[in-house]
Amino acid sequence: MTDVRRRSTKQREAVRDALDAADGFVSAQSLHAAMRDGGSTVGLATVYRALATLETDGVADAVQHDGETVYRACTPTHHHHLICRECGRTIELEADRIEAWTQQVAADHGYRDARHTIEITGICDRHAPGGDA
Amino acid sequence: MTDVRRRSTKQREAVRDALDAADGFVSAQSLHAAMRDGGSTVGLATVYRALATLETDGVADAVQHDGETVYRACTPTHHHHLICRECGRTIELEADRIEAWTQQVAADHGYRDARHTIEITGICDRHAPGGDA
DNA sequence: CGCATTTTGACAACGGTTCTCATTCGCGAG
DNA sequence: CTCGCGAATGAGAACCGTTGTCAAAATGCG
């Protein structure tokens, strides 16, 4: 399952570079825009495809955000995110306890090959307490 | 924040009923189809709106599934889900430890009003181990 | 080099969700 | 009970992110 026949193309590399250069999470569209802005002529569909393969390869991290799929170059270690609902500032979290817990829970119920998604959102301290609903 | 001016309409009740009657998670579209199938004339947009308010009211649970938002009548207590990737069979989970952990982590980083999303997926034991990738 | 195969790019098509807006309905006031 | 205001509805268009199509170009192996 890991030996996917895959050619190396400059487009895919370009997407990967752009993703590395991006600060936090970016959507396929904005990444495409940024690339085009930087002189690249890569097509939108290609960006989508590249991002998908990048995720499959474990190089990119995909998260659903408000109906949009946002990607991010991810560190090799498994982690989760703490995201500010106001500004999108993201902090990476690692918690072995939680990893263990999810595996345990899945196993307890007879579920194999457990994966999990954990996202914590909040309002970070850079925002005045009275400013929002 | 909890006193949203809200009228009670038969449409919303119908949606709520339909959601209660549904087995597991259902999309707005399929719920609408089921309702129409059952003689209701509620519009699709209304189903979307009702589902949204239902979620706001804590009566329904929304989960993203493959680009679709699926809803489910949920128990009043906060919980998460363990979902089979093969058949969609769902088990509700409750874990105070995890709740506490998320709050703690958010607070540690100066994030207020923390919310979280936790989904665990796996392959449940009703499926033969050798059948899939 | 030559060929089989993969990948690309432009754009159409798709699907889910949201918006628009005139009409209807709920519900409190009189 | 009736009136009236504003929320809720419904039909369909509009939106938007994403995926499919398909001919042309690129890749890499022999």
UniProtKB/TrEMBL annotation, chains A, B:
It is found in: Cytoplasm. The keyword Acetylation does not apply. It comes from the Bacteria. Pfam families: FUR. Signal peptide: none annotated. Belongs to the Fur family. This is Fur family transcriptional regulator. Homodimer. Keywords: Cytoplasm, DNA-binding, Metal-binding, Repressor, Transcription, Transcription regulation, Zinc. The keyword NADP does not apply. SUPFAM superfamilies: Winged helix' DNA-binding domain (SSF46785). Its main location: cytoplasm.
